[in-house]
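Deviation from plan, reported transparently: adenosine monophosphate complex.
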Amino acid sequence: MEIIRTVQSLSNKTKGISIQKKQIGFVPTMGFLHEGHLSLMKEARKENDVLIASIFVNPLQFGENEDFEQYPRNEKEDEKRAKEAGVDILFIPDKAEMYPGEMQISMHVTDRTDVLCGRSRPGHFDGVITVLTKLFHISNPDKVYFGMKDAQQVAVVDMLIRNLNFPVQLIGLPTIREANGLAKSSRNVNLTQTEREEAAWIYASLKKGQQLVIDGEKNPAMIKKEVFDSINNHTNAVIDYVELLSYPELKPLKEVQGRVILAAAVYFNKARLIDNLLFDDNGKLIHVFRQEE
Ligand code: AMP
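Because the crystal trials were delayed, the predicted structure below was used instead.
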């Protein structure tokens, strides 16, 4: 595995790879790699000739009072894990490399962001699409891999790729969980043992909501209330939202219809956690999102 730290050298490298007609898969991350990240890398490894992953904690997608400084980092361990997952090129730029000066162009997402994390974290997805636009240009991928744990991010990247005609296919892959159901996240290290146990109730509560749909419930308000009360009764977390929306459009629904997302975000003392389930109107789970080739 080669480690590259400059934009210029990765650009040169990927141009050469494309000339050889080799297919590039790309997995962007913020590092502190866990099984969730590694599952994306392993899948991308299977589907591409060359696998590029990046580690960059993007300051642009963190709000003023968010955890940019406290975001966990461990480059040496990440290098080891990425190598084991079959990464060919690990891109680890620093902040000055990605943002040598003030940005003189700003990007703004105007759809699919007035709900869920977009509403709670103003500017977050503007920062996400800005860094991804840069990373897509530098890494020149054919396919890009994201986790459905961040389903709103997948919905936004879907728009980014289609609106700006990136010659790239988006693939959203299943959420990897701890044995107790808690979605793996770099931020889980900031939970106490008790919080970690309580946090399992986010997934358990979403499953209760899904079960209502399987049993024939169509009213989003009823389903959201069940999930909200369940999280509230079993944890000391502060609930940011519990939402049920169409997917990937992320529009409110009068009744459960088509493909829907049931999503929750909660604040524990030192970590904000998100999770979701995607299912159809019979409650059948959908694990993967794949843009058409
Ligand atoms: P992050 O480092 O948090 O920006 O995540 C990098 C990529 O890994 C994103 O596409 C995430 O959606 C994905 N990811 C994070 N956690 C998980 C998980 N538990 N299961 C699957 N993918 C994940």
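The two ends are 28 Å apart (CA to CA). We consider this an acceptable substitute for the interim report.
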